[in-house]
Structure formats: structure tokens, C-alpha cells
Amino acid sequence: MLYAAMVFWLMVLVFAAYGTHQLWAGMMKPNVLNIVLLPGTLIAQAGRIVGMLVTGTQINNAALLTTADQSKTTKSKASQPKIPVIGPVLIALLPMLTCGFAIHLVVTTIGQNVLTMPTESTSNTLPLTFNSPWELLRSTIGVAEHVTGIVLSSDFRNWQTWLFVYLIICLTVRMAPMPGAHRGAIGAVLLIGVLISVVGRFAETSEGAIEGLWDLLNFSVGCLLCLLLLSLIVRGGVGLFRILTNQTKFK
Fold first, then answer.
1. Distance (Å, rounded) from C-alpha 46 to C-alpha 40?
2. How many Cα atoms sit within 13 Å of 232 on the Cβ side?
3. Residue-wise pLDDT tens for the chain (251 aa)?
């Protein structure tokens, strides 16, 4: 049940990142968004390129800054992986792993001087009863509130705090699936769950590692849910402003 719950929260993590990224993409141009999220963009693209090389996919749309015409051209010429089923999963998996590893490094290095409280834990059981989804929503909001409190209680007179917050935002938002890799992202999350369960069953020192992964997952989910809620508020405010100023179309 623990591994199934981990897969569930990984799904929440990935698609909360996707929702946040889509909301931001509706308020700024893609090139601007790539630059704003530059550390996460570079790390995710590096993982994606490695995945494409491993699966024998032609790399023709890995540019950081592209024009609209170039974007349409690369999408139309996008090649398929030579490995039929596992290929798309690997291409979606490696950006998640690189961003996840980068989040781990940031939390265990800069975060040691920033974070002052332990993270509240999400539920490690699946919502299988009628009342459990409501408990799940309450605990999820509690985790987002707790993580927000941890960050806001940090010392913002320290430059490391600003760097930590910026890197965590870039890396967690870039956990979103790459364009055209949404089905592969679902397969990648399932594959991660299978790998963790196999390691958990056969590795003697896996309990501490899984506990560390769970804490990191809780922190990342809390950060992304907070970002998603704030993004919804900002997007709603932008939409209201455009309506009042007779600008009915987003960028």
C-alpha cells in the first residue's frame, strides 16, 4: 500500500507541476518562461536529451529559445523512438529523475541552512472509502500550508534563502511532462513505483532511503500545490483585468 500511495502522490506531483506550468505559459511567452525557469529548464532538457539518445530518437527540438515557426517545424519533424513502448517512457522518465535528483541536492545542501522544521507528511494510504477523499484533501491542504509556513519562517535576509526558493520553484515546476510526453509521463511514474517496490523488497538498507524519498516527495508536493493555488489566483486576476480592459485573449 505504501508503494501504491507513493505512485499516487508522484502522479499528483507531476500533474500539479503540469498545471502550474500551463498557467504560467498562459501569462508569458514560452521563451520568457524558459528563461525564468532557467536552472530547471536546463536540467530537464539535459535529461530529455539523454533519454532521446538512449532510445535512438533524433534530436531536433532541444533549443532553449525558439521562434513560433521553428517550434511548428520541429514538432512536424519530430521523430519517434526506435524502442516502441519503453522509448517514450524513458524520454519522459529521465527529466523527472534529473529534476528530482537536483531537488534532493538543493534540499540537502542549501536547504540545511534554510529549512528549520520537519515537513508534515501526506497520507500513505490510498483513498478507497467514501470519506477518504475528503480526508485526503484536508491533509493535502495541510501539507501545502505547512511547507509554506516552513519557507516563510526562513531568514530572507540570507541570500541562500532566496537562492533556495528560486531553485525549488524552477525544479519542481519543471517536473511537468515535456510536450508530447504526457502518456510517457504516466508510464514513467508507474515504472518508478515498480522500481521502488522492487528495491524496497530486496534491499536490506532500503527503509531509510524510502523514508527519505517520502519526505522529499512530501516537500515537493507541498511546494507545487502552493504554487498551483497562487498561480490560479494570479491567472484569475489577470483574466479579470483583461476582461475589464476589453482584452479577451490571453497571450
1. 10
2. 9
3. 677 778 888 998 999 999 999 999 988 888 899 999 999 999 999 998 888 888 877 776 666 665 544 444 444 445 577 777 788 888 899 999 999 999 999 988 988 877 765 555 665 666 666 666 677 777 778 778 877 887 778 788 888 889 999 999 999 999 999 887 888 899 999 988 888 877 777 665 555 666 778 888 888 888 898 899 999 999 888 888 888 888 765 54
Query: 246: phi > 0 → left, psi -120 to 50 → alpha, else beta; which?
Result: left
**Helix 2-25 and helix 206-244: axis angle, to 10°?**
30
Instruction: Give me the count of residues in the chain.
Output: 251
Express the helix, strand and coil content of the chain in percent, nearest 5 each: 70, 0, 30
Whole-model pTM: value is 0.83
Lookup: cell for 190: 508507474
Separation CA 107–CA 95 (nearest Å): 18
C-alpha cell at 147: 511547507
